[in-house]
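@channel sequence for tomorrow's demo:
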Amino acid sequence: MTAIREARLELDAPLRHPLPLQEAEALVALLAGRLPRQPPAHPLFRHPDVAVLLTGESLDHATRGSRIVQAAAGEARLLASASLIPCPALLSAGLDWLGGLLALQPGMVPGFIVPPGMARHDLRLLAWDGTRLRPLGSLPEDDGLPRCSFAAFREAAGLPLPAQEEEPVLRAQLQRLALAQLRGECLPVAQARLDGPFRDGQALFRLWMAEALAWLDGLTTATAPRLLHAA
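structure tokens (generated this afternoon):
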């Protein structure tokens, strides 16, 4: 019997300042892989596997460990990279609690998850909707059917190549696209400029977002999604 693949959590985001003492102590405990002495009153801390939320490792994912770092501007940032047991309840509760610790604006994309049971490159970007972290939809899959190239889509959608754009512009674009995804809005594409069928619709915007996030913050799975190689 094949075991269900584990989930993955990747975050790079500023922490609120100041953090409530109980939350700060709980975060430090979880970063050390242990239970806090006085757990916050949140469902996450009633889960039996909460201690591995930020420290879990597995063969499913090439994670890098979790820690707090001091950024150049003096802000404290949470860098989280962990594998989680294949339990949707743990992942959901973890996102809910961690989201409340982060200093984010609506539309910011601080990382991604790989849901339990999914292939290791089947990531879901995380966007802040103003109250919580919400996973966006899946990225398009290369199913062998004819479709436009990713490079042609980028041009038709008016999106820059991340390596050729300034960071503030990229982050503004990423935030704009995330807000549209959160609201269920369809963004325009000049389909006459495409070099093949427009099969993947708004999922191609998520593919560009994943490309931009990897360029900006290094948040990516071990190997880029195959469709990126056609760019």
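heads up for whoever presents: Residues 223-231 have pLDDT under 50 and may be disordered.
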